[in-house]
Amino acid sequence: MERIAKVAVLRRRIDVARREGARVGLVPTMGYLHAGHVALVRRACAECDFVVASVFVNPFQFGEGEDLDSYPRDLEGDAAKLETAGCHALFCPDAEEMYPEGRPLTHVHVDVIGDDLCGAARPVHFDGVALVVTKLLAICEPDAAYFGRKDGQQLALVRRMATDLSFRAEIVGCPTVREADGLALSSRNAYLAPADREAAPAIFGALRVGAQLVTAGEREPRVVVEKIRSVLADEPRLDVEYVEARDARTIQPLARLDGEVLLAVAARLGPARLIDNVVLRIDGDSVEVEAGEIT
Ligand code: AMP
Fold first, then answer.
1. Ligand 1 pocket, 176 CB below 6 A?
2. Catalytic: which of 37, 107, 109, 125?
3. Cα 143 to averaged position of ligand 1 atoms, centre (Å)
4. Topology of domain 2-174, per CATH?
5. Which superfamily does 187-294 belong to?
6. Rounded to an integer, what distance in angstroms lies between the CA atom of residue 207 and that of residue 184?
7. Residue 218 Cα to ligand 1 middle (Å)
8. Residue 94: exposed, middle, or buried by beta-carbon count in 10 A (0-12, 13-18, 19+)?
9. How far is CA 194 from CA 185, 197, 198, 266, in A?
10. At what angle do helices 202-215 and 221-232 cross, to 10 degrees?
11. 43: Cβ below 6 Å to ligand 1?
């Protein structure tokens, strides 16, 4: 695996791969990689000939007082994991390489999709994500880019942005990878103290109860949301930020649960803000639950 810190060098390397007929895949990350990230890379390697994983903690997607400075970093560990997964290039630019003029004057804002849920609690977050993903897609011009369903709102936003801006990349959503007890893997799980770590699987537990209710026939969003809330209330360490049942593509509210539905939770647990979701595909009486995979 090549380690590349410069945009121009990466572009030249990708040009060579493309001239050789390679299908190019991109996996954007903020590093401190875990099995969820590795699953994205493995999927990309199965579907592409030349895979670039980026590790960049993008300062512009962190708000004031958020965890930019304390965000966990381990570039050597990341490089070893990517190498094992079969990744071809690790793109690890510094902030000056990505933003040579400092704070960008150009903004990428996706209306509506990013406005509430995580967007309400983190007002600058999705504009920062949209900007950095746009830049990575402009630099790499991949045939496919891989994102986790764990960040369900982000996936919806990136999909819409890629369509609106006519990026060549196919946006591929990949299943959430979970610990054996159901906790979704996240770099931010490193913030969890032992007692918080023990409480954390309650989030997925509550989402599963919500999904079971829908499988049993419930189609009223409010009833499902209230059920999830009541299960979460059994875990006093959790400070619940939102519980929502939304259209998974548009992130808009639904009058009744139908089509592709996102059941989503955000909660604070000590210093960590955790998010998780399950996707339900509802067609009449049939409900397919996509909850992710245990490592
Ligand atoms: P991050 O490094 O947290 O910005 O995440 C980089 C990519 O990995 C995003 O597309 C995330 O959705 C994805 N990701 C993070 N955690 C998981 C997980 N547990 N399972 C699958 N994908 C994940």
1. yes
2. 37
3. 19
4. Rossmann fold (3.40.50)
5. Pantoate-beta-alanine ligase, C-terminal domain (3.30.1300.10)
6. 12
7. 30
8. exposed
9. 16, 5, 6, 20
10. 150
11. no
Our answer on whether the CB atom of 182 is closer than 6 Å to any ligand 1 atom is no
Ligand 1: residue whose CA is nearest its atom 17 = 36
The answer to whether residue 125 is catalytic is: no
Cβ count near 144 (within 10 Å): 19
pLDDT digits (tens), the chain, 295 positions: 999 999 999 999 999 999 999 999 999 999 999 999 999 999 999 999 999 999 999 999 999 999 999 999 999 999 999 999 999 999 999 999 999 999 999 999 999 999 999 999 999 999 999 999 999 999 999 999 999 999 999 999 999 999 999 999 999 999 999 999 999 999 999 999 999 999 999 999 999 999 999 999 999 999 999 999 999 999 999 999 999 999 999 999 999 999 999 999 999 999 999 999 999 999 999 999 999 999 8
